[in-house]
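Why Galactokinase N-terminal domain-containing protein? Reviewers of the renewal asked for a concrete example.
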Amino acid sequence: MAKHEELPIPINNNLEPVYGGGSALEEAQLRFDNLKSKFVEIFGHHPQIFARSPGRVNLIGEHIDYEGYSVLPMAIRQDTIVAIRKNEAEKVLKIANVNGEKYSLCTYPADPLQEIDLKNHKWGHYFICGYKGFHDYAKLKGVNVGEPVGLEVLVDGTVPTGSGLSSSAAFVCSSTIAIMAAFDVNFPKKELAQVTCDCERHIGTHLVGWISNLCHGQDWVCRLIDFTQSCTDVHFL
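Here is what the prediction returned.
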């Protein structure tokens, strides 16, 4: 049997496998319905797909992972959802946020080779990290994704920013997964973890919160990460 990290990113046609049942499922359904309605309001049609990545908390070793020391992280309930749709009529990336008052619409050329303007920080830069990282890795793997096309994107995040819960990592991970799915590609979790780890370096930071991506879908599991050796799952009963 393949290890968890060797499996592809799971694809679901309902929310229960991700959010469980009861009030959590009801809240999630309302949130996704709102996201879909907002997408139609902004772009005029429904999204092609949704992608999700949770934040993460380090039970042991907060922030020392950036220096290569061992940590014990696990995924949390708060997450980032990215709704996405291809737009082959124009080669523009349009990135909107459900909180439009705080995060204004960002537009970029549909060019995987574009450089990120680090002197002019925009929240949409994190999406471009995933965009560039996906195209770089697809090229490395010999996966033909065709000519660049436009993408319409709407983001909804509940991971508190600036709290050490990997809000930027959740954004980059969910963006990369969404782009990957939009192009009908699905890399194994272990490969995607490394891709997203490399992605945020485009914006000048080290993305270690990708670890949460490996934990996604495993209830009551945290992961001991030893950067000099390997990963070990720790299960809570």
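The chain has one domain: 16-60+79-214. This is the kind of structural detail the renewal will allow us to pursue systematically.
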